[in-house]
Design brief:
nucleotide-binding; Nucleoside_diP_kinase_AS; 7 helices; globular; 20% strand; ATP-binding; alpha+beta; NDK-like_dom_sf; transferase; binds adenosine-3',5'-cyclic-monophosphate
Length: 139
């Protein structure tokens, strides 16, 4: 089925001017960028987005990192987009990521891992509506 997923190009990647190279990976995999904006998250916004991780030891560090510099939030669309995006991103920890994946090529560490992608249909819908209004999502 055609799906939509929420993607974030994280501060470590925007800082290194990698937005275009990362977007090329998505497009080469058949994912279409149907919405995109560059924003700077507040600590509160980062904390709310990652609320599911709030009991984890890395939560504070994660929120500080995500609020440290601008991010690019985007909606990717395509056949099986949620899983496909996870394949293109590679494993969370770049040390475990497969050749050719975004995290293998660009991530610096498990924390500064260049991209985020929704992990399931329910979280994709929730994460898309966290950042985008219906008006920003054209067919
Ligand atoms: P992401 O897909 O954005 O979802 C949660 C993030 O937490 C994850 O990518 C990692 O960047 C981050 N994360 C996971 N494990 C660790 C860790 N051990 N230390 C720091 N950050 C982590």
């Amino acid at each position: 089925a055609i799906e939509r997923t929420l993607s974030i190009i994280k501060p470590d990647a925007t800082r290194r001017n990698l937005t275009g190279k990362i977007n090329a990976k998505f497009e080469e995999a058949g994912l279409r960028i149907v919405a995109q904006k560059r924003i700077k998250l507040s600590m509160g916004q980062a904390g709310k987005f990652y609320e599911v991780h709030k009991e984890r030891p890395f939560y504070g560090e994660l929120c500080e990192f995500m609020a440290s510099e601008p991010v690019v939030v985007q909606v990717l669309e395509g056949e099986g987009a949620i899983l496909k995006n996870r394949e293109v991103m590679g494993a969370t920890n770049p040390a475990d990521a497969a050749e050719g994946t975004i995290r293998k090529e660009y991530a610096l560490s498990v924390g500064e891992n260049s991209v985020h992608g929704s992990d399931a249909p329910e979280t994709a819908a929730q994460e898309i509506s966290f950042f985008f209004s219906g008006l920003e999502l054209v067919g």
